[in-house]
Amino acid sequence: MPLPPPSPLSPGCVETDAVVGLSVRTGAIGGQWCYNAGIKRSRIYVQADAEECESLYVDPVRPPPNPADYPFDCSIGCALCSYELRPDSFYECRAGRQVC
After folding, report:
1. What stretches of the chain adopt beta strand conformation (E)?
2. 52-99, pLDDT tens digit by residue?
3. Residue 1 clears pLDDT 70, i.e. is over it
4. Phi, psi of 38 (to 5 degrees)
């Protein structure tokens, strides 16, 4: 599924500056999440993976009422991707702080 074109962000969200310049993952509509962005889990911190992961965000994080009409504008929630050390001692790309 191709990525949706960038659209104006929801005027109701005061944190949309956090996603400007990042690439969108289609989350609840297209099944593209941080964890399946193609960034491998690693026992060591990999700077290039961290940079790639943290250049992404998920929109939407919850299923919209009508997916075909969703404008990918963070109107029902976006989440920044975060490269983090998990409890199993692996670094991986996961959904982090939710914005909007």
Report:
1. 23-25, 56-58, 78-85, 91-99
2. 999 999 999 999 999 999 998 888 889 999 999 999 999 999 999 888
3. no
4. 90, 10
Predicted local distance difference test score (pLDDT) of residue 6: 47
C-alpha span between 1 and 99 (Å, rounded): 24
Cβ-count burial of 47 within 10 angstroms (0-12 exposed, 13-18 middle, 19+ buried)? exposed
What global pTM score does this model have?
A: 0.83
- The HSE-up count of residue 54 (CA atoms within 13 Å, CB side) is 12
Which amino acid makes up residue 2?
A: P
Closest CA to 82 of 23, 35, 17: 35
* Site of tokens 């001692």: 89
Neighbouring C-beta atoms of residue 10, cutoff 10 Å: 18
